[in-house]
Amino acid sequence: MPPFKVLISGGSLVGLTLALALERAGINFEVFEKGEIGPQLGASIALHSQSVRILEQLGVWKDIEPTVTQLEKVRRLDANDGRVFEESFQLREISRVLRWPFFFIERRRLLQVLYKHIRDKSKVHDHTAVVSYEEHDDGVVVTTSDGRSFRGDVLVGADGIHSIVRAVMSERISRINHALSTEIDQAFTTSYQALFGISRRDPSASDSFLPDGHTVYNVYGDNYSAIVTTSPPDLVFWFLFIKTGRTQDHKTPRYTDEDAQAVIDRYGRTALGKNHTLRELWDTRIRATLVPMEDGIVKQWSHGRVLLLGDSAHKVTINAGLGGNLALEAVTQFTNGLVALLKEKPSPSLSDLSSLFEQFDRVHRSRAEVARTISAKTTQTEAQETWFLRFHARYISPWFISDQAKAGQYLRFAKDAPWLDFVPLPSRDADLLDRREKERVGSRLSRIGRCLGAEHCWQQRQLPQSGGDIGGDRGGLRRVASSIAACNGQSK
Ligand SMILES: Cc1cc2nc3c(=O)[nH]c(=O)nc-3n(C[C@H](O)[C@H](O)[C@H](O)COP(=O)(O)OP(=O)(O)OC[C@H]3O[C@@H](n4cnc5c(N)ncnc54)[C@H](O)[C@@H]3O)c2cc1C
């Protein structure tokens, strides 16, 4: 029997990271990418500390570290006049707690580094699109655009928001469950469009209106927002997000260069400081692209031997910079499960694989839902969608919420991110397992404490006026016990 093999449709963030992780685990794979590896779309990506830990485990971080600068500060500006209304060091606090930096990188460069680290390049087929797949009792066979067929044990759809693997999977599901297939096809909606770009900056110019490499500008408009940061010495990364009507993804348009020009004609005056505008970045762009900003989580991520990972399974709005980081979590979670399964059963059955996919869904879905909520709230806040969000951004957040508290809101999510558990942890994280276990126990105890407190208040209200013996109230004790059990259940 041939060794277990994972076929991967899509050679971008998910496809290449998965290939690297599988290679590290000694699992066979083959990647199919319909275009070139690391195309220039004008895109950049913020990598969060929890993802950097995974890149370090994969041996990639050492090639990235010298070329990026750690983000520390968020400067919040008014889009109309460029006035700064808040400065926060919340990113520095996040990096301090998670022990790894937080930074922007040109997306193309990240993909090139991931690709460079894959040892066996013959397993990565660029300019080769997956056009379909067929499942058999003992495996899955994909057909590619050049007419070739490849056999594997599992097929991973890492082919993005317009995934062909998801489309074929949905078509197979429609034969037995039409309603589910429709839900899968209509999983994404769009309420915003995003114009993003990379521009040149002159390293010798003073550029006082641009952030330094450690700062992100968050520009707040009325139903639109912008993000600008620099990547020393000579690049500027920028994004403009504009609220549109809500549309179902399968009806969203693909935008043209004329559409992007029309957006700049209308929003180019967005202020990036006194007397400086977004148009200046547009005029010095290397490349800029206008896209719909989809949001949604596909109801079912697997079928038979096929699993969706990354944007093909869940897509979140861009402002919080979470989509790619969530995708890296998915790769990590899935690879951890697969490595453990293959250790036990080198030739797993279809039912073993189904259990693996279900387990992955159980753990990762709730993380995707939280990431989606954080992202949507960030997008709405930065576009000041309501008067309350505007008031909160201008008067509550700068004056009444500390940087630690702002970081804490995000850390509650980020601290539970997975790492590759078949690769040693980096030395600075040697105590991570212990630390996480202590935090889990601590948060379980505090939940039990809160439940007991609530039960005690309830008891107080129930006591007869003449006084009563709580210890003798067996129903009360039963309620305390069941409160603890319920709390324990919640904290699992
Ligand atoms: C402008 C912008 C900024 C973003 N910024 C951030 C950020 O700061 N932080 C963050 O965490 N996330 C960010 N994201 C989200 C992040 O980029 C995505 O979540 C991430 O790229 C998802 O990776 P993926 O591999 O699943 O999909 P993709 O990156 O979309 O890759 C899919 C790949 O599949 C290929 N493909 C498609 N069809 C086929 C086929 N039939 N056969 C073979 N190959 C195929 C495509 O060519 C592509 O290379 C941003 C997204 C955008 C658009």
Tags for this model:
binds flavin-adenine dinucleotide; disordered C terminus; alpha/beta; 492 residues; 23% strand; single chain; 6-stranded mixed sheet; 8-stranded mixed sheet; 15 helices; FAD/NAD(P)-binding domain
Please tell me about this protein's structure.
The chain is of the alpha/beta class. The chain has a single domain (5-429), classed as FAD/NAD(P)-binding domain. It has 15 helices and 19 strands. The strands form 4 sheets. An 8-stranded mixed sheet has the order 5-4-13-14-15-12-16-19. The protein has a 6-stranded mixed sheet with strand order 7-2-1-11-18-17, with helices on both faces. Helix 1 runs parallel beside helix 5 (107-117). The protein is globular and about 70 Å long. Mean pLDDT is 90; it is low at 463-492. The structure holds flavin-adenine dinucleotide. Flavin-adenine dinucleotide (FAD) is lined by residues 9-15, 32-35, 43, 45-46, 129-130, 158-160, 164, 194, 196, 291, 310-311, 318, 321-325, 327.
